[in-house]
Structures are given as structure tokens and as C-alpha cells.
Amino acid sequence: MYTPFVPEKTSDAVAVYPGTFDPITMGHLDIIKRGLSLFDRIIVAIAENIAKKPLFSIEERVEMIRACFPDDEKRVEVDTVSGLLVDYAYTRGARAIIRGLRAVSDFDYEFQLALMNRRIEREVETVFLMTGFRWIYISSSIIKDAARHGGDVSGLVPDHVCEKLRERFMQGR
Ligand code: COA
Fold first, then answer.
1. Which of 41-51 are b and which e, b meaning 16 or more Cβ less than 10 Å from the residue's Cβ?
2. 10 confidence band (pLDDT: 50, 70, 90)
3. Any residues with Cβ below 6 Å from ligand 1, and which?
4. What is 14-136's CATH number?
């Protein structure tokens, strides 16, 4: 008879939600909210993606994300990660990496990332959560582009992020 291996349950189910978050959007918040119904704690980890030139500094991004969770500090931690994501997850006691899926176009890249992460560290699983329908077509880049040209992005990012975008692009005019 096949007996499946059942991993020991650690005291808290912790997940890491990584990304560039430049800036955090309602789509990211939707994923965090969904993640909180499955995990006891989520570590939102701002990671460097060398292919991207961020608009906001790491400190600004940390601050913007923290401001989204004034009452949930115990369940949502904001941190930065350098080096391998799976190493970070493992050392922080997280056995899951959360990634949001918006459309089929996300799938190829996410699949590659998840398989490479699994190859490096088998004990960390990637969990995909489907983004809320309203946020399927947004990304941080498209929001920045609209804001840069004076477009109204309210409702797509939290109010304090909207204000930061407005300030940043006013400076450049
Ligand atoms: N709602 C809205 N937008 C979303 C979204 C959602 N639910 N989910 C993703 N996006 C957008 C993001 O805004 C981002 O938009 P942008 O490209 O315009 O900035 C894009 O989709 C995907 O970016 P993000 O989720 O931030 O991931 P990323 O591709 O920038 O980062 C890392 C990928 C950080 C997870 C990856 O580079 C990593 O793990 N780095 C650490 C180093 C490492 O371990 N490397 C080896 C990996 S195998």
C-alpha cells in the first residue's frame, strides 16, 4: 500500500509573497487578502529584479506596503530580500511562496520560476492564487505609465500610493 509522506505541521503556516511592488497595487492587496485566509502569516518580501529600474526606493516601497496594514502587523510583515528567494523563505520558516496569476500570459514565466525554485529547494512550495477579476489587467508598470502622463489611477492603488505617484510625477514636470 502506498503511504504518502505527510510533512510535520509547523506551529504557524507562513508564506512569503515576493515581488518588486513598484508600487503595490490593489491587485497585490487582493492576493495578500486571499493568502491570509490560507496562511497564519504572510511575509511580503520586496525583492530586487535586476531587469527592472524601480521608480521608488526600497525604503519607500516598504513604507507604502506597511501603511496598507496598520492593524495587521502580526499577520503581515514587510521585509526586503536579497539573494535567492527560496533560501530566504526557508530561513524565515516559510514553506510556501505565494504568486498571483492574472492571465494565461503570466503562466509561462511563473511556471519557470516555480520549477527553478523547486529545483533549488524542494521543501518550499509555490502556491498560485487567482487575482480578483477586477485586477486582471493591471500591473505596476501600466499604472506608473498612466500616472506619469497625468492619468487618474485612483482605485487601482491605495490612496496613499496614488498621492506618492502624483508627487513623484509632479516633481518631474
Ligand atoms: N495584481 C496586479 N499586478 C500584478 C499582480 C496582481 N495580482 N501580480 C503580479 N502583478 C504585476 C506586478 O505589478 C509586476 O508588474 P511590473 O512588471 O509592471 O512591475 C508584474 O506583474 C510581475 O512582477 P512581480 O510580481 O513584482 O514579480 P517580479 O517578476 O518583478 O519579481 C521575483 C519576481 C522578485 C519573485 C523574482 O525575480 C525573484 O524571486 N527574485 C529573487 C532572486 C531569485 O531567487 N531568483 C531566482 C528565481 S528562480
1. bbbbbbbeeee
2. low
3. 18-20, 22, 25, 27-28, 31, 47, 49, 84-85, 100, 102, 113, 116-117, 131, 135, 138-141
4. 3.40.50.620
